[in-house]
Here is the input.
Amino acid sequence: MLIIRKAGLFTTIQDLGRPGLRRFGISSGGAMDTSAFRIANLLVGNPENSAAIEVTMNGPEILFAQSAEIALCGADLSPAINGTDAPMWRPVQIEAGDVLSFGMPKSGCRTYLAIAGGIQVPSVMNSASTLTRAGIGGFCGRALRKGDQLSIGESRSTKTTKAVNWYVSPCFRTDSPEDPIIRLLKGRHHALFGAGSHERLTTEPFVVTNEADRMGYRLDGPPLTLEKPQELLSEAVIPGTIQVPASGNPIVLMADCQTTGGYPKIGQIAAVDLPVAAQLRPGQQVRFELISTEQAQEEWFVQERLLRHLKAGILTKRRNA
Amino acid sequence: MRHSYHPFGEHAILVELTGEQNLSSVIRRYCALLEQQAPSWFLECVPAYATIAVFYQPFAFAEQEHSPYKAIKAELEALFSRIDSALEAPPRTIEIPVCYGGSFGPDLAFVARHNRLTEKQVIAYHTKALYTVAMIGFSPGFPFLEGMAGEIAAPRRTTPRLTIPERSVGIAGGQTGVYPIATPGGWQLIGRTPKRLFMPHEEEPILLRAGDRIRFTEVSLEAYKELEVRHADHS
Here is the structure.
């Protein structure tokens, strides 16, 4: 049992979402940074899709009423166990009575707390992920609050009881202390924008505004405008779609975005860089770089293969522990 | 009819159709064909007014001569040539009871005034038409309906409401629709239905799908309350 002693800014239960329901208007949702989320689960011997906790910027304070094996991956939000710095990117043993807390957000925006056995919540439409907009999934369809009690599932993997001396290579980190460059595919309406907008998109920085949540981020920067104004018919949008309303300030859609939209799409964030986008904070600058669909698909294969290697490596380490 | 293909990220391709009178029927047949054939690479498709987004698994085409995008485009072109043989499931007609006006439809008077009609006439136009669900989007189960009479068209509110109660029925421009969940929105609200459009805990969580025919029927406040209780019991 976990007892939430402080809620934190926006702490939710997530898994890898509810794919396959877009035609019903239901967003895929799930963890924003799927890379850190999957690694956190792998580290504690869970299936990649086990329900875990997504922590945003200012983290919660959690009392463990039982011993547990945990892993923290994603943003560095200064995690601590009983007030002592807690290591990230490796399995950590927690004893009954221990308190996990978070401090200064050092880099990135979201971190994942995976617990061996996963968090036990009822599945809604085949997923444990919280979709607060619809009030479904996770813990009572909402962000966690002070006093909430969460059950932990039975772990199927053998415990690594000793402190481990290994950790996941920093090459898997998605939080960037510096302003990242995010790779884009051309959006379907890219050609409808003027030459000036094309140039500004890839040469000038954009700033993430305070209007940034799991649905999407409004960016501030040089205006992007259509060559001639026109109304478009609504069509499918997905996480990573960059659409531009008439104001000229782009909106990056994220995990809980709606399934259709009518604004022109100037770009689509490459799937490999979507976890990087998930770690952007309000006020942070970002630059964009265009790549082809073929390159993006190749990059995605490379990343998936790397994750498979990592998974095999973690399995071996856990077996030998 | 012409169709063109557009990359849409690494996992999807957008098929755009132009030049056909009955686009929505072609789009539904195309989706039906994809779902029936269920090729190994197929994940899901999202039909819209003039496009279909087809989601696929690029790993299915890894280490092949052509890029996954080129391969998927070829697969879809081949599929498209068989569209004429595809059958569309006969449309379902679903009745949606609505309690018009009052606190459920605070903008009914505006829609009437805007069109120089009485409130009764607005309701008559709204209940007379047979609508088709062109697409589902915006929020879980939100239907975009075709077929509203131009006589009751009304512009969106200049300031959107921060929250619109679930099951509100609204008009925006020449469109009408129902809000399945409480969301912010700028549509003119003319009534509310006791029928649930989004039932997340049911086997079939969404009441409507693209292609369904919809008819609105007027119910009294008493009937509304009774139906609301009955529908709540079912979910």
Summary: Residues 23-37 of chain B form the longest helix (15 residues). The helical segments of chain B are 23-37, 68-80, 108-114, 119-128, 221-234. The longest strand of chain B covers residues 93-100. Residues 196 and 232 of chain B are 8 Å apart (CA to CA).
